[in-house]
Design goal:
Helix content is about 60%, strand content about 10%. It is α/β, with parallel strands linked by helices and about 475 residues long. The mean pLDDT is about 85.
Length: about 475
Amino acid sequence: MAESEEEAISEAIRRYTAEGYSLEEIDKMVRGEGEGPLIARDPDVLDTWFSSALWPFSTLGWPGAEAAGEVDHQVLNAHYPTSVLVTAHDIIFFWVARMMMMGLHFMKEIPFKDVYIHALVLDEKGQKMSKSKGNVIDPLTLIDKYGADALRFTLAAQAAQGRNIRLSEARVEGYRNFTTKLWNAARFGEMNGTGYTEEFDPSEAQETLNCWIAHEANICVAEATAAMESYRFNDAAGAVYKFAWNIYCDWYVELSKPILMGADGPAKDETRAMAAWVYDVILRLLHPFMPFVTEELWGGLRKRANMLIIERWPELDSQLAAPAAADDINWMIGLITEIRSLRAEMNVPAGAKIPLAAIGLADQASARLSHSEALVMRLARIERIERAEAPPKGAVQFVHAGSSFALPLSGFIDFVAERARLGREIEKAEKEMAGLDARLGNPSFIERAPAEVIDENRARRAELRARADKLTAAIASLVEA
């Protein structure tokens, strides 16, 4: 029974009860055996699903064109069949199958080549939205609060095939923060003199940093294009989001500051042009998901003459491939990330500058560290970098890309207290895992619990396992003074 029909019956039952009808009388009315059917079909309308089945061609002049002998009816021939139908899975047999049958019967051809089956939008607990349940999320309210683009991107990013969307306000708020990040990146470029230059060719970049970002942009274009062409809109959105936030905004902007704020010269000019070129690529890739913000950034803040909506989708360019530059920059980023993670794990004060010991580095790793030393020291808050053959006492050891490093932390942390703290964290994680194991090992729970609840418990256990393993590795890395 359709939800609207169910709600109508519930409302009618309340009304008839208030009017003094007995439950037996109401039951007869619902089944059409009382004074009259509670819900009656209007005899003067075409059946909803039958009329929908005719929609692909009835809206294009059929059957008038055929009746008038206009076999080559311009509108019908121009738009039938169409390329793709977008629908939810719950009406495939009610609507999609009927359109195909009617198209084959009357038009002698299927009405569409592809059917994109999108997810249903549920509430954050995985329940279908219903006024009677009080769990309806009004999209207009979310748009007023966070913007249309934030809501649009949220739905696209969660639209994985074969899975329904659990819509929560927190997710929409998160993608609103993404739009803020885009604005900040545009303002950063504006303050540092970046701007579109038609003569600029990114494949001729000389700076390692600029070769790397062009290489990564090219990878993003390839991933987003392949995902869009196969209707994996969530993967396309995810690829652009990861590149725009994690690679461009978080790393390229930060790594380019010494060049952009340094002396004028070819490196600065190239970086200004590359920053603008890559940002334009991001806006083009994001436009189908966030049309309003990207259009404003393109024509407003970026002052481009043509509207973004008529610009071409970025194309893959094999000349932008720069694997050597990508390996060098990604090696440096991985080292900085590892140091930051260990600092946080060991509760090292955020403002403290600590030394870094490089243990017996091979030639390639040693050269990479020498080239990136200044950036590593600034972004990881390192006081000095020392070369050593063995880890010093009172240090935390770690391995990055096959090379050994150590952070001498004597004087920054209490090793005994830190070891005890990490042990308590492991014990806490293992205790929670034991509870989840008992629940997931209970056949009654597996049989009765909703699938989404079971998935949440399994995902939580995996997170705890990873957390416990990481803490165990942290204890093992401590070399006492």
